[in-house]
Structure formats: C-alpha cells, structure tokens
Amino acid sequence: MSTNGHAVTQSDVAAAAGVSRSLVSLALSGSPRVADGTRAHIMQVAASLGYRINTSASALARRRSTTIGLVLPNLRNAFFEEVSCSLNDVAAEHGLTVFVTVGAEDQDRLCRAIDSLLGVRVLGLILVSPWLTDEQLVALGEETPTCLIGRLPPGGHVDAVHIDERHAAEQIVRHLVSRGANSLAYVAPGVGDTASRLAREESLYRAARNAGLPMTTEVASDDDAGAAVRRLLDAGTPRMGLIAHNDMLAIEAVAVLRELGSGGAAPAPLASYDNTYLARHGEFALTSLNQPAREMAEQAVRLLLERADSLTRHPDSPPPPQDIHAEGQLVIRASSTA
Q1: Is the pLDDT of residue 211 over 60?
Q2: Eight-state DSSP code of residue 224
Q3: Range of the structural domain that residue 123 is part of
C-alpha cells in the first residue's frame, strides 16, 4: 500500500524503477528472460513501495469478473470490426461483456490502454493483431489470461488463434500462377509492429520459391498502397501478380490498376487477405483469403475461459499455451480473373 492509501501497482513500480511495466511483470513472475541485476533492482524497488503479489486475490477477481478486455490496433481495418462484432456475440452467449479499447501506433498509449483494462480486473484480454513485442506479450500473459487473434504465439503462457499462414500463402500463389502470373509482389502494411506482417511475408516467399517465381515486397507508407503498387508495377514483369496484406490495401491497389488499365495496360491479377465486406462489395470484387471471424472468436473466448478457470483453481500453475489454426479459404472474384 502506498503512502496515499492506494494499492501499489506494477505501473507504480515501473515508474519508480525506470523500466517498462512489462519488464516489471516479467521480473516479478520469475521469468528467466530478465537479467539477475535487473530483477534484483525491480524487486528492491517493489519492496520499498510495499508492492505485494497476491495471486489468490487476482484469481478471485477473475472468477467474479464477467468482462473481457478487447484490444484492437485501430478502427480502420474492416476485419477488426468483424472480429469485434463476432467476439461481442460469442461473449454474450457466455453471459460476458466485451470492453473494447483501441491501441495506437504509439506504444506508450497502447500500454496505457492495456493498463486501464487491467485496472478494472477483467477476466482476461483478447488482442487482435497487437502492436506489441513478443516480450511485452509474454509479460502480459503473466499478469492475466491473454489470447491473441491474427498473430503467432509469442511464447510464455499466451494462447493464440490465427489462420495457417503457410496454407493460405500456398492457395494465393497457386491461384495467381493459374492466372498467368510470372512474378509476384507483396504490398505490406506500413504501420505498427511487424510481427504479423513478417509471418505472412515469409510464408508468401516460401510459396513463391516453391512455385519457381521471383517475389518483391513494397511497404505502403501510412497504409497508402497506391505509391507502393506503382513502384512494384514499374519494376515488375508484364504479368506480375499482386498480393495485398489486407482488403484495405487491396482497394487502393484496385484504383491504381483501373487507372493504368484505362491506358491500355494489361491488369495485374490481385489477391488479398481477410475477405471482409469490402472484398465482397461489387465495386471491388476482391479475390481474398477468408479469415473465419466467428470461428476465431469462438476459439479465443474458449481459450480465455479455460485459462481463467484453470488459474482460479491453480493460481501458481498456469496451463501450457495453445496455438489454434483456423482454416482460411481463398474466395475468388473479379480482381484476379477479369
């Protein structure tokens, strides 16, 4: 208890020790990722402030909570909206409420948003394509049940639900090859943590190599794909296949392709990921890899409830993490066939 009568939090310890809250969480949980000297310093500061770990109280708070904290990277991506709606529906079926916060490209703001959720003692956290490092996510998993959607598991005690990126990439590459593509280009997102992007990019490069095709990547500046698409087309082969990281980037690519096509150039076949309502809209008709939002939401809520229940019964014995692969299927439309 601090001198002003309020309970000392890990954020208080982090501020006093001059380190991040995630590092404090790792140190206090005994993680081997923290250097001995750093751990000793954090423990000394925590003791001087009167901070005490109370796993039983935390477990009791989780058992009584009916709120799930949901962290979205932004509200611009239609896929995040679909996942949020699905999570709300699934949570309601379990008598739970979803409390949503939106992260930002600014890591400090994102961490403050997460701190606010932890402060109201949520049952656990679900993060969609989070812009956090693996170390930060592992530390978060030591504090509260945590599940990721759309990102590979970081280790520790964090569960994850995502599509099989390798299988998804193979579907897209195989389709573009069938449309006559003799090279490939990937339009990558330009904001946030790169973990999700690199996993997708690596899978695409592997599938391209297996198909015997060269592949190039361009990063969209501020999520504006137009300039990146132009650079790729200028440097690419006459029959280059384009792959956008998501539907948001793909619709910007459509505008460029239509402009170039009006000048007589042959359109490049285009595919993307997520299969949101934008992909299904007749104006864009995107060939897109479907991520089953409802199925992913059901799995994420299940994993969170199972982990919270296990930690309530055995606070000091967290269960091993689970890594769930959802089946993604390519839906073919006019953007790759016209």
Answers
A1: yes
A2: B
A3: 63-162+293-325
